[in-house]
Amino acid sequence: DSAACLGIVLEFYGHVHSALDLRRLCAVGRDGASVAQIQRGTEALGHKCRIVKKGIESLRKATMPIILHWDLRHFVVLEGMSKDRVWINDPAVGRRKLTRAEFERHFTGICLEITVDAEAEAKEKGPSWSALKALAPAGTQHIKTALSVGIAGSFLVFIVDLVFGGIPRAFFDYIVGYQISSWGYALGLVGLPILLIRSALRHLQSLRLESQTQDLSLHMKRAFLDRLYARPTVFFDTHFAGELFGRLRDLDQSLRVSLKALHTIMPQTVTILLSIGTLVFFAPLMAVMLVVPRIALLGWLFLLTTRTRELELRLRDEMARNQALQAQRAGGFLRFFSTGLQDHLLATCLPLIGRWQAAKAAKERHFIAYNSAQRSFETISLPLSSFVGAYLMMDAQLTYGGFMLASALAVILSTQMSELFDTIQKLRGLQPIVRRVAEVVEEAELEEHLESQEFPVMQSDSMELDSSVHIFLNRVGFGYNSIDADLYADLSFAIKRHEFVCILGQSGVGKSTLLDLIAGLRRPIGGGVYFNGQLLKGPAPCGFVVADDELMVGTLASFVASGKEADPERLTDVLREVELWDRLGFFVHADGSEKLEKQGLSRGEVQRLMLAQALYRNQECLLFDEAFNHLSLEQSMRILTRLRQKGMTIVMATHRPEIQQLCDRFVILKPQVGGPIQVSTMPNPAANTNALTDGTR
Questions:
Q1: How far is CA 433 from CA 103, 256, 436, 545, 552, in A?
Q2: 525 vs 523: CA distance, rounded Å
Q3: Coil/strand/helix, residue 36
Q4: Tens digit of pLDDT for each residue in 385-431?
Q5: Contact at 8 Å (CB) between 437 and 254?
Q6: Per-residue pLDDT tens over the stretch 542-559
Q7: Which of 275, 305, 465, 586 has its CA 20 to 30 A from that of 370?
Q8: φ and ψ at residue 139, rounded to 5 degrees
Q9: Helix 184-229 and helix 241-282, axial crossing angle in degrees, nearest 10
Q10: DSSP for residue 594
């Protein structure tokens, strides 16, 4: 519906686009498109899109049609508004007339104002290299090494080629000229080892390139994933996981092509410069006659390629408009024919068909010109070098051996310039792939910017709190649409150090979401969460244990230490605390090659292993989300006793009443009809009798 709404607004201004084209430009996925994606698709068409928040009265003064966010889940187009009536175009059901009260129940307050440029044409957005700057440090050293190896290797290969090309000159100018026949056989045999050396150098270059490509791909993908996983949970709520990892495959593809291109561009450039320099030294006139026409032809080819790409975009735009109009008019064919207006139908279609055919003809003309220029470039090399060489030999400025060497250099020059042009074209062809990778970063940054624009009050980075307060939620507001605080509003409470707090509420009320807010996995719309008096701006300094089974790969040490180098003593301590030492202790003393087999562990052991991972990360604060479901009451009490004796702050969401009675205080969540969740706190009346700190009940 997001792409359909954009199409409705653009069609109102006379810009018709196919639904397929709009869905592609707005990157519509399984869950539709966000406001950021609609804005990017609008700008890709050459128009402007402004995202604003408006009240009902200000909407009456807005320029219509305007796209509205509707029911927190899709979009509609507002076409008209009176004092007590509203006219909308809903892609799901068509045009509707609503009362003012009905409209207010569905409208979220978010609007997308489209400003149409009458002269705009579809433009292909270039790659956003700035959005990938965060990934650059991971691969800078690899790129520098690749360039160094490429330049050094190309210099050595050129020297070998120059020596091999000098064999004919030595043969004709010296052995034949001075009749030194005894050296003829030896000179001929020299060529074989030179060819073998050249092949070996090329092979070593290829091996080095593949090794560097693998290393760079690993480092860049890790940087991409680190940046991706730093996003708040809401980012993954609105993005399909398959699409994100599709972008990761795009990154791998672009890295491979880019590194190979960089590995060849510099060597090709060095080889071209060395060839030109050598030609200038042996035959300046031949160098000028060979280089200048080639540069002119390559420049012409580049301009033709650029123009052809522009015409392809224009042709695609005109085809989309024509197809959209034909599809729109198809439903009215019978009405037109029954009333004798078929001529009018044809007349309305002819202008678009004419523009489509004109764009197609212009593209074909430039394509023919491009092919002609490319064939000219390929066929001009040998005749031009032969003509210039023959003229210089007739003028006694060049010997026959020198002509053979110059011809060899001309072949190298022609080949390298052609390959350099093809390499640059491959890099230009990477633009859509690089753009898809950058869109993930750009969209997340845009969403963060939009969220920051909606914050009613900016929170200070620090707050003066009592020293006993560990966690403080200050007027926190949150909603799943990242716009309205309809789940939590003005939520404030404190959790003291060493306190055991239990979050209570029915299933689906929002307990896990509250834990996500405390853990920094979700960003509040308003207010802030403070740890030790500091505003939380990323993941909280605490361990988080969830009920779901964690993906376990690698060794025990790598899993518990979250991929970092594990301290054996600390690893032993946390395994003892969660009562897994007797079961898994042998993994610690193994040589490190023993892999965890999740299938061999019970669900309770998996939960305790996840608790060990959280304990290894943080020894001050732990968050539990139904994390004791598969543990017995006795074992749960023993583990909680140890954690309380360590003086840890514990925040837990659980449905087990026997564990609920072990806490110091309750945070109670109650849903409200048509409003945010009501949150209250109360001490546990049985807290003193349960006293976990001494290990008894």
A1: 42, 12, 5, 37, 32
A2: 7
A3: helix
A4: 677 777 777 777 766 666 777 777 777 777 777 777 777 777 776 66
A5: yes
A6: 888 887 655 566 677 777
A7: 275
A8: -115, 5
A9: 150
A10: P
Q: Determine the Cα–Cα distance for residues 255 and 294; give it in Å rounded to an integer.
A: 30
Q: Which of 617, 571, 611 is nearest to 590 (CA)?
A: 571
3-state secondary structure of 687: helix
Tokens found for residue 562: 């979250």
Q: Considering only the top CATH level, what class is 457-542+618-694?
A: alpha beta
Pairing of strands 526-531, 534-535: antiparallel
Return the ∠ at Cα 536 (arms to 234 and 221), rounded to 5°: 55
Residue-level length of the chain: 697
pLDDT in tens, 41-72: 888 888 888 888 888 878 888 888 899 988 77
Lookup result for tokens 């045999």: 189
Topology (CATH) of 2-115: Cathepsin B; Chain A (3.90.70)
Placement of tokens 């508004």 in the chain: 81
Characterize the bridge pairing of strands 621-625 and 649-653. parallel
List alpha helices for 171-283, DSSP H.
184-229, 233-237, 241-282
Plot region of 70 (φ>0 → left; ψ -120 to 50 → alpha; else → beta): beta
pLDDT tens for residues 578-618? 888 888 777 766 655 566 665 577 888 888 888 888 888 87
Q: What is the pLDDT of residues 248-292, one digit of tens each?
A: 677 677 766 776 676 677 777 777 787 778 777 777 777 777 777
Handedness of CA 256, 260, 266, 268 (dihedral sign): negative
If one counts every other C-beta atom within 10 angstroms of the C-beta of residue 378, the result is 12
Q: Are 28 and 2 in contact (CB under 8 A)?
A: yes
Radius of gyration of the chain (CA): 35
For residue 78, the cross-strand partners are 66, 88
